[in-house]
Every structure is written in structure tokens, then in C-alpha cells.
Amino acid sequence: MVPAAHAAGSKYRAQLYPQLDTPRLSLDAFTDIDAPRVQVLAGVFEVADTTASIPHPYPDGAAAAWIAQQQPFWAAGLALTLAIRRRDNGLLIGAIGLQALDTAPEFGFWLGQAYWGHGYASEAALAVRDFAFGTLAVRCLAGRHLARNPASGRVQQKIGMRRVGCTQAAVRDGRIETVVEYALRADEWQAAAVAGQTGP
Ligand SMILES: CC(C)(COP(=O)(O)OP(=O)(O)OC[C@H]1O[C@@H](n2cnc3c(N)ncnc32)[C@H](O)[C@@H]1OP(=O)(O)O)[C@@H](O)C(=O)NCCC(=O)NCCS
């Protein structure tokens, strides 16, 4: 198995940023033009509240800075962040990514609140899961969510991730919360794919 950092670094560093298509979505690179909409979508308390790192209130300039770091992080094999856009109208509706690609790859995602409940997160996560295992050759994918955020857990279950634990952790603003942990190994992904269980 090729380590993720090596796969990302050697095979993809010199190539264009990844672009993934699903039936309803296009997942591709953020650009400067997206920054005002990122601030609007991610600036909603209900979106930020259950994430590890979206600031609230969302400061001016933070979206542009976040977008600016994405290409260098990908080029260095550290992280992949993709915009989630609807294919029918090109509208940006959220973000999905893989952090810690060089060590312990971990899923993260958020959607603008108006777009919750339509299966978009599961559809995007499925594509990123298959890209992570099938193209980047990661050996294991991790995921986490706050216990009070069952929708995120459901998304992870729908793409075949297993609940592997539960812990108390200091999260946003130092608050102690219960965090549920998920994982999926490459061999489990392979077995599910062979069995035809690739969809949510
Ligand atoms: C988590 C989030 C991305 C889910 O997006 P989404 O597009 O609504 O997700 P999907 O529609 O693909 O799937 C959600 C699933 O959770 C289920 N769900 C939603 N609310 C739920 C609840 N309170 N309890 C149990 N299940 C719930 C839905 O029924 C659906 O499952 P189903 O398809 O089996 O019916 C979205 O709520 C969000 O952006 N939240 C804020 C940011 C965030 O928390 N990100 C994750 C950080 S770990």
C-alpha cells in the first residue's frame, strides 16, 4: 500500500487540483470568488457550532485566508479541501475535506443550513471516501462528530464507517463535549466495494 503522503505527493502534486463528480454535485477547488459566499454560509451559528474549527462570528478575511492555504496544503500532501457545488446551477453549498493526509487522514464537512436534509453530505462523502482509498491509497479514514450532532454520524454510517469509540474532549472554546469516533480501513472499503455496497 502506498502511504497517503507519498501518493498525494508523487502522483498528484504536479497535477491539477482534484475534481470529483457525483450525480448531483461537483466537488472542486475553492477560488477567491467563493470567499464572500463561504463567509455567509459558514457564518451561520448552527453551521459553525458543531464543527471543530469554523470560527463564530466568522471574521472578515478569514474565508479568503482559508481558501489561500488549500492549494499549498494539497501540494504538500497535507490536506485536501473541496467545494461542494450543485451541478444543476453551479451554486456553492458547502465544503468537504480530508485533513492530516500525511499522518491520520480524517474527514470533515459542512453544508449551508438551507441545504441540509437532501442527502448532499452523504453523496459528497461517498465520492471523497472512494477518492481517498482508490486514488490516494490511504490505509485508514477517521471521522469524528459531537454526540449532539447525530446527522454527521449518520453521514459517516451511510458511507460505511464504523463507530469505534467515544471520548470526552475539549472542543470549541475549551468546552468539554462527548465526541463519537468513526473509522474505515482500506481492506473494509475494498470488501464492501467487491460486495457491491458502495452506495449510501
Ligand atoms: C452534518 C451535515 C453536513 C449533514 O448534511 P446533510 O446534507 O443534511 O446530510 P445528509 O442529508 O446526507 O444525511 C443526513 C442524515 O442524518 C439524518 N439526521 C438528520 N438529523 C438527525 C438527527 N437529529 N438524528 C438522527 N439522524 C439525523 C438524516 O435523516 C440523514 O439520514 P438518512 O438519509 O438515513 O435519512 C449538516 O447537518 C451540517 O453541515 N452541519 C453543520 C456542520 C457539521 O456539523 N459538520 C460535521 C462536523 S463533524
Unreliable segments of 5+ consecutive residues: 1-10
Gap between N and C termini: 26 Å
The CATH architecture of the domain at 4-140:
3-Layer(aba) Sandwich
Largest sheet: 5 strands, antiparallel
Describe the 3D structure.
The chain has 200 residues and is α+β, with helices and mostly antiparallel strands. The protein has a domain of 137 residues: Gcn5-related N-acetyltransferase (GNAT) (Aminopeptidase), CATH 3.40.630.30. Helices cover 34% and strands 26% of the residues. It contains 8 helices and 8 strands; from the N terminus they run αββααααβββαβαββα. It has a 5-stranded antiparallel beta sheet with strand order 1-2-3-4-5, with helices on both faces. The chain has a 3-stranded antiparallel beta sheet with strand order 6-8-7. α2 packs across α4. The longest helix has 15 residues. It is globular, with a radius of gyration of 16 Å. The N terminus is likely disordered. The structure holds coenzyme A. The site of coenzyme A has 20 residues, from β5, α6 and α7.
Task: Label this structure with key terms.
globular, 34% helix, disordered N terminus, Aminopeptidase, 200 residues, alpha+beta, binds coenzyme A, 8 helices
